[in-house]
Amino acid sequence: MAEASLPNPHIGFIPTPEDVVMALVDFAQITPADVVYDLGCGDGRLLIAAAQRKAKGVGYDVNKECLQQAQAASEKAGFSDRLTFWQQDLFTANVQEATVVIVYLLPHLNLKLLPHLRKQLQPGTRIISHQFDFGAWVPDRVLHLPDSVEASTLYAWVVSA
């Protein structure tokens, strides 16, 4: 886990409920060929679920304590060889190698992040957002989970050429 001098976090950690984690991994259609980036990864639960599908993963967060939890959980689950965690502002994170990007950010943060994603991501990369969309960018798929802990909605986009 890399450390850096970082600004204050943009938002506090709100964990994705466990039932939504599994639905999100299914919705993202994660396979062993994927490299999953979780921007604002918190305790790493989404990346651990992706690693259970044999995907590799990279998590970025500004919260050192969350990253320590994520690293410990990754090691405990036996995925420390598949998952990497970085303490870095997600708006400057290098995401060029991603085949899947996961975010659970407020709408104004998604909008702030979108130009960065569009600049770095390759065509075909899947972006999955829990709960919030990217404004006027129409998602390719939407999944409503009315029976989940917080009646979640998942959005998916595929980056075009």
UniProtKB/TrEMBL annotation:
Domain Methyltransferase: 32-139
CDD domains the UniProt entry points to: AdoMet_MTases
Enzyme class: transferase
Keywords on record: Methyltransferase, S-adenosyl-L-methionine, Transferase
An example molecular function term from Gene Ontology annotations: methyltransferase activity
Name assigned to this protein: SAM-dependent methyltransferase
Enzyme Commission code(s) on record: 2.1.1.-
Keyword DNA repair among record annotations: no
InterPro entries (UniProt xref): FAM173A/B, Methyltranfer_dom, SAM-dependent_MTases_sf
Pfam families reported for this sequence: Methyltransf_31
GO biological process, one term: methylation
The keyword Transferase belongs to this UniProt entry's keyword annotation: yes
